Amino acid sequence: MRHAFYLAFFLGTSALVSGAQAATKDSVTIGMALEPPGLDPTMGAAAAIGEVTHYNIFEGLTKIGEDFSVSPLLARSWSFSKDLKTLTFQLQQGVKFQDGQPFTSADVKYSFERDAAKASTNKDKAFFASIQSIDASNPQVVVLKFKAPSFQALYHLGMNTAVIIDAKSAATEATHPVGTGPYTFGTWTKGASLTLNKWDGYRDAAHIAIRHATFRFMSDPAAESAALLAGDIDAFPRFQGVEDVSAFQKDPRFKVTVGGTEGKTIIAINNKQKPLDNLKVRQAIAYAIDRKAIIDGAMNGFGTPIGSHLTPNDPGYIDLTGQYPYDPAKSKALLKAAGVKLPLSLTLTLPPPAYARQGGQIIAAELAKVGINVKIINVEWAQWLSGVFKNKNYDLTVISHVEPLDIGIYANPDYYFQYDNKDYQNIITKMNAAPDLASFKKYIGEAQHKLADDCVNVYLFQLAQITVANAKLQGLWKNGPIFVNDLSAMSWK
Amino acid sequence: MTTYLLQRLMILIATLVLASVVIFAVLDILPGNAAQTMLGASATPQTVAALAHKLGLDQPAPLRYGEWISGLVRGNLGRSYAYHSSIAALISASLKISGPLALLAMVIAATVALVAGMAAAARHGKASDGAIMMASQIGLAVPNFWFGIMLVLVFAVNWRLLPSGGFPGWTPDPLRAFSALILPALALGLVQAAILTRVTRSALLDVLHEDYIRTARAKGLTPQAIIRRHALPNAMIPILTIMGLQLANLVAGAVVVENVFSLPGLGRLIFQSISNRDTPVVADCVLLLVAIVIGVNFLVDLACAMIDPRLRMQP
Amino acid sequence: MRRRASRLHRGAAPGLVLGAGLVAFLLAMALLALVWTPWPPAAIDVPHRLLHPSLAHWLGTDELGRDILSRLMAGAGVSLKVGMIAVGLGAVPGVALGLIASAVKGRSEDVIMQLCDFAFAFPALLSAIMLTATYGAGIDNAILAIAIYNVPVFAKLTRAMANSVMAREFVQAARAAGRSPAGIAVHHVVPNILAALLVQATIQFSIAILAEAALSYLGFGTQPPEASWGLMLSEAQNFLFVAPRLAVYPGLAIALSVLGLSLLGDGLRDALDPRLQKIAWQRA
User: Fold this and answer.
1) Residue among C2, C218, C266 minimizing CB distance to B256
2) Largest CB tally within 10 Å, which of A348, B127, B137, B286?
3) Among C266, C279, C204, residue whose Cα is nearest residue C16
4) Residue that is last in its domain, among B74, B104, B135
C-alpha cells in the first residue's frame, strides 16, 4: 500500500517534470572556447567578455546586427550634423539599470569620459579620446562632438567597448556586472562555467524566451564535440572542431551553420626586416602560398580566401584573391630578380590557434619549395604579444585579425607590420573623414588595392564562423561581425 | 628531540623563503606581462601602460617581492590580475576539484595495489606474481595523459558513458560532478597503483621474513590468513608513508591530466595563469605546492624519528 | 608445474630479455630512421590527409598528409636523443656532487643534500614548463630542464652508495695507506657503484622519455615540423573523433619504449647485483 503510494508519487512528479520541460524549455547552455578574464568589456579587451555580457548584461547606444546593420538600442534615434562632427542621440525613456538606478544621458557622459580617461584600459580608448565634448544637459538627449568628421562613430558605439555603465557599480563591473540588459549576472565557477538569469525588470521582458543561460568554457575541440554529442551543451557558436563538422551535419539532432567572422587570417610580414623590406621578396612569398592547401589542411576546408585586409562580409569589399595566385615558378623568379641568396632563412612565429599551428607547417613546407627555409617557433599568446606585437622581433607570423574594419592599423607605422607609407596613410585619413557610405567604400577600396599592391602581408582567408547547435534551438547568429551571444533572440521550438 | 625538531623547523622555513625568492625571480624574467596579455593586439601602448600601472607592474621588483611576502605573512594571498578576484578564493575553488580528484585517484590506486600486492606476495615466486609485476611495469610505462585520452576515446566517445571533460560544478548535481572526475582519477590512479603495488608487495615480503610470521605459519595458518592478519598491519607503515608522499605528487602532477580533461583544478589554474602571465597566482600556487611537499616530508621524517623502528617488529 | 613457474620467475630473465628486445628495437628504428624512412617524415601532402592504413602508408597519414610510420620512426630518434643527453647531462654533475658530499662530510655534505631536497620540493613538470616558457619552447631547453631534474637524483644515490662503500674495509685500508679522498673516490668508490648508477640511468632514461612526451604534448618540447611522440599526441587530440588512431600509435610507442627500458633496468639490477634493491621509481 505504502509502496504503491510512493510509486504513484514518484511517477506523478516525474511525469510533471518531463511534461513541464517538453512544454517550455527555458534554459540554454552555450559553449565557449575561452573564459573571460573579468566581465567589464569597457576595461578588458578579451573577446570572451563580450560573448558573455554584450547585449545580455550590458547594452550600448546602438546595436550591431548579424548583417552588420546598425539599429537602435539604448538610443531611440540619432542624427548627424552636416560636417559629420556632431552626433545627437535621443535616448529610450524609462530605462533602468538592474540595480534600480535610472538610465539617463548623464550615464552616457560618465561612461564615455571614463573610457577616455588617462587611467582607462579601454581597447578603443583612441576612439573615445576623439570625442571633444559630451553634452548631457537634457536627460533624454546626448550630443557628441567629435574632433574630426566621424562617419564610423555609430559603428564604434555599437561595440562592446562602448556599453553604458552606471557610476554606482562601475568599480565592480569586472566581478559583479550591472547593466541595462535583459539578463543579470548569476554565478561564476572559475575555470568551468558562468550563469545568467533573466531580469524581469527589463523593458521588453515579455519577449525574452530564455530564463536561464549557462556558459561553459572548454578550449579543446575534442571536448567541444563530446559535450555537444552528450547534450551537455545546446549550442557552440564559434565551434573549433572543424574536423567533426561533417558528422554533426549528418546528425538530425543538430543544426550546423557556417558563416563568416571578421577574422582576417594573414601571414604578417615584418616590412622593415631585411630582405622582407623588398617588395619582390614579399611578392615571392605571396606567390609561393597555396591558399586552398592551407584552408583544406588547417581548417578542413572552412574559410573563404581573401586578397587584402577585409572580409567578404564587410562594406566595400573587393575580391583581390587573383592578384597573387599560387605560382612557385614566378616566386622563384622574383627571388632571383631580388638578388636574394638562396636558400633564404626566415623565422615563422606561431601563436596557439590551430589555423596558425597547422597552417604554419603547410606554409613552411610551401616556402621550402621555392628556396625559403623557415624555422617554426611556437609561442604562447603572452610571448606573441610581447615578442612579435610589441617588440616587433619576428620575420613572419600567422595571425587572424578579428577586429571589424581594422584596415586603419596599416596607417600606423609603429604597428608590428612596420609598414610606413605616406600614400596609404592619406587614403586612411580620407576614409575616416568620409561623409557617406559611398565615399567610404571608395576609399576603403583604394586602401585594399594599396595593401595588395604593396604586398604588405600575405592575405590568406576569412575565418569561418561555425555554429553547431541543438536543432530545436533558434535565434543563433550565422555570421559573426562582433563577438556576441544574443540570448534575447534565442528560443526553443 | 626538541633540538632536532627546532633544527628541522628552521630548515623548513629557510627552504620556504629560498623557494619564494626563486619562484619570484623566475616569474619576473618570464617574457611577456599581464597587462599586454590581457589587452591583446588591439590596444595602444598607452592603454597597456595604463593597465600596467594599475596592476603595479611598473614598480621595482624588490618592492613587489616585499609586498607579496608581507601579504603572505599577514595571510593575504593577493589578487589575481586576470580574474580580478582574490587568489585565496581561486585556490580554494580549484582545490575543491583537485583535492577530491587526488583522493579518488589514491583510493583507486590503493584498492588495486592492496589486492594485487597481497596476491603477489602470497604467491611470491609463482607465475601470477610475475604477471602482476609485469602489469605494474606496464602501468609505470603508460603516460598518464595518453591513458586519459584513451579512456576518453572508449568511455566518452565510443560508449558515451561518462563525460569527456569539463566540470559542471558540485552544485546542483554532485553525482554528475563526481562522474566527471572518474576518468581523470582512473588516468591518474594507474601509475600510482603500479607504484603502490610494488611497494605493498616488497613491504609484505620484508615482513614475511620476520620470526613471528614463522611462528604463525608453524601454527598452521594459511598464507592468505597470515598476510591479512599479521603481515599487512605491519607493512602498512611504509605503504602509508609512500601514499602520503604520492598524494602531494598527485596534486602537482595532475597538470597534464587536468588539461586533457579541461578540469579547473589547481594544475590547470597554474597552467592558465602562466599563459595569462597572472604571476601572483602562479607564485602563490607554486609556493603552496612546495610547502605541501616539504611539509609532508617533514611529517614523515618526524613520524620516523618518533617511532622506533624496533617497535614495529613486536607483534 | 610448480617448478616451471618458479623457473619462469627466477632472475627475471624473461623480463630482461623482453626489455633488451624492446630497447634494441627502439634503437634499430632510430638508427634506421637516420638513413631511411618509408616517406620523408615532414613531407606534407594535404590532398592525402587522414588516410587509413594502406600498402603505401602502413599506418596511414596524419592531418597534414604525413606518413605516420615515418614520423614514429623519426620520433624514436628524438626520444633516444632526449634520454641520452638528459641523463648524461644530469648524471655527470650529479655523481660529482654525490662523491664530493660523501668525501668531505660535515657541513658541506649537509648543504649539498639540503639543496637536493630543495630541488625535489619543486614540482618537476611545472619547473620544466616555467624554464621553457622563459627561455623559449624547444627540444634543447626541454632536455636541459629534464637534465636539471636528474642532477639531485644522481647526487642522492651516489652519496648513499658511496657512503656505504666508504665504510668497507678496503677503503679504510686505502685511507690508512694515505690515499687522497679524490683518489679513493675515483679508484675505489666509482667502480663499486657503477652498476647501481647504470641501473638508475636506465630508469632515468625512461623517465626522460615520458617527460619529453608530456612537455611536447603541452607545446613546450619538440617544435614542428620535427616529429616527436608527445607532439604527435598533442596534434592528434583535435582528431579524436575522426581519426583516433593518430592518438593510439604514438602513445603505444612511448609505453613500449618506457616498458622496455624499465624491464631492462630491473633485469640489469637483478643480474648485476641483487643488493641494489633500493633503487626505485621516483616519478612526479
Assistant:
1) C218
2) B286
3) C266
4) B74
Structure-block grid coordinates of residue A477: 547568429
Output the pLDDT for position B210: 73
CATH topology of domain C2-39+58-283: MetI-like fold (1.10.3720)
Are the Cβ atoms of B32 and A123 closer than 8 angstroms? Answer: no
Chain B residues lying within 8 Å of A399, measured CB to CB = 41
The yes/no answer on whether domain A63-169 falls in CATH 3.90.76.10 is: yes
Rounded Cα distance between A79 and C19, Å, is 81
Q: Which domain holds residue B45?
A: 2-74
Q: Under CATH, which number does the domain A262-464 receive?
A: 3.10.105.10
Q: Which of B12, B44, B74 is the last residue of a domain?
A: B74
How many CA atoms lie within 13 Å of A199's alpha carbon, on the beta-carbon side? 25
Confidence at residue A315, expressed as pLDDT on a 0 to 100 scale: 87
**B87 within some domain:** no
At position C92, the amino acid (one-letter code) is V
Other Cβ atoms less than 10 A from the Cβ of B228: the count is 14
Mean pLDDT, to the nearest integer, of C66-86? Answer: 95
* Residues of chain C contacting residue B271, judged by C-beta atoms under 8 Å apart: 129, 218
- Give A289→chain B minimum CA distance, Å: 25
Distance CA B39, CA A126 (A): 14
Selecting from A247, A358, A364 the residue whose C-beta is nearest the C-beta of C241 gives: A247
- Contact flag B29-C125 (C-beta cutoff 8 Å): no
Instruction: Establish if B13 belongs to a structural domain.
Output: yes
Site from B27, B29, B39 to mutate, A interface, most A CB atoms within 10 angstroms: B39
* Cα–Cα nearest to A484, from A37, A41, A26: A41
In which band, very low, low, confident or very high, does the pLDDT at C276 lie, cut at 50, 70 and 90? Answer: low
Global ipTM: 0.83
Q: Per-domain residue ranges for chain A?
A: 2-41+46-52+181-253+471-492, 63-169, 262-464
Across the interface, do A386 and B33 touch by the CB < 8 Å criterion?
Answer: yes
Gap between the Cα atoms of B145 and C251, Å rounded = 9
Interchain pair B146, C133: CB under 8 A:
no
Mean pLDDT lowest for which of A261-265, B101-105, B161-165, B302-306?
B302-306
Q: Chain B closest CA to A56's CA: distance in Å?
A: 20
**Where does residue A432 rank: exposed (0-12), middle (13-18), buried (19+ CB within 10 A)?**
middle
Helices (H), A98-257: 105-116, 125-129, 153-156, 221-229, 245-250
User: Which residues of chain B neighbour A190 with C-beta distances below 8 Å?
Assistant: 83, 85, 90, 93-94, 264, 269
| Sign of the CA dihedral running A299, A305, A307, A310 | negative
Cα–Cα distance measured from residue A376 to residue A371, given in angstroms and rounded to the nearest whole number:
15
User: What are the grid coordinates assigned to B155, written together?
Assistant: 568511455
**Residues of chain A contacting C67 with CB distance shorter than 8 Å:** none
Task: Report the alpha-carbon distance of residue B292 to residue B247 in Å, rounded.
Answer: 10
DSSP C167-187: TSHHHHHHHHTT--HHHHIII
- Closest partner residue to B157 (CB to CB) among A122, A191, A226 is A226
Nearest to A192 among B32, B54, B264 (CB): B264
User: Is position B82 within any domain?
Assistant: no
Q: What is the pTM of this model?
A: 0.85
Distance CA A257, CA A177 (A): 31
